[in-house]
Amino acid sequence: MMIYKTCPGIILTSIGEQEYLVTAKNRIQLNDTAAFYWKCLSEGADINKLKEAVRCEYDLEDSEELEQEIQGLIQELLEGQLIQEITK
Amino acid sequence: MEMIEEQFLYAFKCAVYGISTDWDDEREISFWHQLFSMAEKHAVLPMIYEAVYNTASFRRMNDDYQKRIQSQATAITLTQAQRTANFLDLYQYLNRKGLYPVVVKGITSRSLYPQPEQRPSTDEDLLIPEEQYPAYHQALQEYGLKTVGNDTDLSEVSYKSQHLYIELHKKLFPPESTAYGDLNRYFNNAEEHKLMMEIYGVPVYTMDHTHHMLYLILHLYKHFLNCGIGIRQISDILLYSVRNQDRIDWDWVAEKCREVNAFYFTGTLYKIGEKYLCDTFPADLSAIWGTAQCDETAMLKDVLEGGMYGTSSSDRVHAGNMTLRTVEAERTGKKHPLRTILFPSYDYMKHRYTYVQKMPFLLPVSWIQRLWTYGTNSLLHKKKGDDGLEAMRIGSRRVELLRQYRILKDTGKK
Fold first, then answer.
1. Spans in chain A with pLDDT lower than 70
2. Is the Cβ of A18 closer than 8 Å to some Cβ of chain B?
């Protein structure tokens, strides 16, 4: 099973309502959804766990669209070297 | 204590707990100016902003003002986050080179707060085995850091880049200092006492909780002997104590504090913490430090006035020389004539004027420069009643504080 986890040394910080991801090279302003995903991934999560958390948080039905959205996001985060794959 | 000071302490306490203040009344612009001015002086502006931004009181302020403070708080927080990210990147780089320095204060203190990056640090301190210094020097240079000053023989060498400032300590306290050089004896075997903690997923070595606790106290003690200490350093100690109270050998810490005349000083720090920064102060801590039975009023006044490390004015910085010389005089049994305050030693000047480090024969030039700068500053920033002797007045008052908190044994009475 593939678990996704945030890479070490990446900082999630906030000031007021706004949350940011900060790496040694970059600063990214996060919207609420992105911040939620990040918090789930910081604990480590597989696709199903992530999907379940998102469905509960935003009261969504299970759908292929949702899964594709999550897959796309994970791919983007992996390419940005913000998260890593761990095989369990 | 003034109303604004009470309100500042309350807002700071809320920030330490990660909650908002309960302010919902209308407050004058002058109140907010004073509050954020104190927050800047103590380098806690993002924390104070976080504790008030969502209150009805602050929301009543005009949008421009709210945005201005928000933008200041954001800039400080993100700059700190960038420094933290850079530091962790460097730490992992050192590990790949087989180097595992011991981190003290800095990132380990920040991690005690609900929003660590809202508590800025100017630098990160690393303790290393002295014999490994050449390997560290090479690794830090390869990483792209440059030394600050050229004397790598000092017990502490600083390195910097755009978003990183590292103080590399071969010893935690300057060994040449008569006032606190001997404090190093408690940390000589720090390598044997290190433990690992994880910060943002990165394993970082630090000292075990008992030694780290003592170091946090004695580091503050060192600054108290110089210019002073800020409220943030007191909350660092309080949070560290509460978080790790069951893992600290308190009898050992108290014994060492007694050995160096810092017991009453430390008791007073805890009393400030108990009265102003804590809802429920741990009974175990109270049992040890409460025995000091100190009146915290004078120290708190000095803390609030002095700002972070007591350097809120050039007068206080100069006064620091006076308090330090007084402590040295007591430790060595020698008097400290006015001459040593006006014309400090090479050891004192070399840290402040780098050209003296390179060319010791320019020591007299640095004395003239120092006096000239101080004289010019006094004239340029002259306030009502300021006759240029403010530093002496602050110095005398702070020497009295050292007596009150039993750091100096000498009562000053003949």
1. none
2. yes
Query: Going by DSSP bridges, is the β-strand pair A2-6/A11-15 parallel, antiparallel, or unpaired?
Result: unpaired
Q: Which domain holds residue B399?
A: 315-404
Query: Are B170 and B176 contacting, i.e. CB atoms less than 8 angstroms apart?
Result: no
Question: Measured between alpha carbons, how far is B90 from B139 in angstroms, rounded to an integer?
Answer: 10
Rounded to an integer, what distance in angstroms lies between the CA atom of residue B346 and that of residue B350? 6
Sign, CA torsion B25/B31/B32/B37: negative
Mean pLDDT by 10 residues, chain B (414 residues): 95 97 95 97 97 97 96 97 96 97 96 96 94 96 91 87 94 92 92 91 96 97 94 97 95 96 96 93 90 90 90 80 84 70 76 81 87 69 55 87 88 55
Residue B412 lies inside a defined structural domain of this protein: no
Dig out the tokens for B12 from the structure.
């700071």
- Which residues of B fall within a CB distance of 8 Å from A15? 46, 49-50, 70, 73-74, 77-78, 115, 118
> Out of B54, B88, B115, whose CB is closest to A13?
B115
Q: Which of B78, B88, B116 sits opposite A9 (nearest CB)?
A: B88
ipTM of this predicted complex? 0.90
Q: Per-domain residue ranges for chain A?
A: 31-87
Same domain, B218 and B104: yes
Of chain B, the end-to-end C-alpha distance in Å amounts to: 32
User: Closest to A27 (Cβ–Cβ): which among B54, B82, B116?
Assistant: B82
Residue B308 forms part of a structural domain: no
Is B72 domain-assigned? no
Whether the pTM exceeds 0.90: the reply is no
Smallest CA–CA distance, residue B380 to chain A, in Å, is 37
- DSSP characters for B83-125? HHHHHHHHHHHHHHTT--PEEESHHHHHTTSSSGGGS--S-EE
What whole-number distance in Å separates Cα of residue B395 and Cα of residue B393?
5
Write down the pLDDT at residue B384.
46
